[in-house]
Please model this.
Amino acid sequence: MKRRTVIMITGLLALAITSLNFFSGPRTNKDGEQSEGGNDSFLDRDIRIKRRPRLESETMEPMHGKLAQEIQEGEVGRVQAELDRQQQRQKQIDTQNRRLKLGEQASPMTQEASPKVDQPLKEQQRQQQQRSTASVTANTNFVENKYHVVTSVDGQIYTEWQVRIHYYWYKQMRLQYPDSAMGGFTRLLHSGKPDFLMDEIPTKVVDLLPPGMDKGFVVLNRPYAFAQWVERYMASIPERYVLMSEPDHLFIRPPPLWATLEKPAAFVFTYIEPAEHATIVNRFNDRKVPVESMAQIGSSPVIINRDQLAAVVDAWYDISLRLKNDPEADKAFGWVLDMYGWSIASSQHPDGPLQYDLHLLEFMIQPPWDETLAQGPSKENTTILHYTYGSDFNLTTGKFTPGTVGQWHWDKRDFSTRYPDGNIDCPAIIQPQTTHLQMWYINQAIAALGSAWGRPAVSR
Model:
């Protein structure tokens, strides 16, 4: 069955068992806090996570995929050979699936009427191979030294103002560093309808999940959005690589192209610990890879070549839904469930688990916890500032007061239903350099947008 049909039928089933009051009444998050409606699901996940010490280092062995090497050499005959190999692999999968069906008790009618979110491995592999093949055959003249920035948003005010600041600094990076690896930009709008920013920011519109499928965790629309983008739009971009980003990322300088054809690059989130949840993770580990080899990462920031993205995006979507529908996994992973989904999906690549080039503070800093701008062995400035944490400071000592609203306070969550004002003052006594920089970047973007800042009257 085609994926969209599965989605719609599953959505109808979920809607039938979901109370209408679910979407309008208060809900309780994993910390026992109540929120009205669905908006709180967009308020950043990281603030609810206990910060753990960062890894000093982590090494990975490279993946030796034939496809990437053959495309790089640009020989049509070799690409055709790879496609033949994929067809042969598909025949083997079909044979395996027929064997599996011999043991199934449900009738075709029952299976058609009640599709499971946990789809057969064969179907998942088939979709992965279709995406990988499509990305190979649609264009063989890629820009090899560039990545395309894709930033997903929901179209609500909270992500709307963030992505405008985000895109402003993307444009500044392109102007200031014309020879960098930063290529084109796409705002991936998963609201199902265009909005007033279509002319301001390059945008592709994709669908929301059917009502009820997210079970209140609207972040599940992110993997669904990327799966649609890969299917509908990725073939039209010229860049070989994709940078998966988020609207609360401020570009300090363009991230280098750390990814290669064999290895994607990612930021390490030390609180993503697949090995610590091996019992749960192995229920979704269809390829039975060692849990210890799963990377401590989420889906952003990630730089990945388009073929690898095409090969894992459906698994990311599928596994994230399955995690949400597993009560134990849902409770354990909470607001970072889709990040676990990406880590697990990366291990399920058809040619073997993706092995990441892992980066720490040289890729991204998160004030106020990260206090300095120069990071990494080279002591260069970091590339992305992620303003996920609230900033609270004592104005007598200038010190950060985590967990306590400070005399000076700024938090993006205060602007979930309205735009922030510009010209935000950050007193000199506040100690972290990165907090001053964060507020300067936000102020600069708002000032540059001028009278355009805010929503037009027709959009309110």
Summary: The first strand starts at residue 26 and ends at 28. The chain has a mean pLDDT of 78. The CA atoms of residues 83 and 133 lie 7 Å apart. The chain has 13 helices and 16 strands.
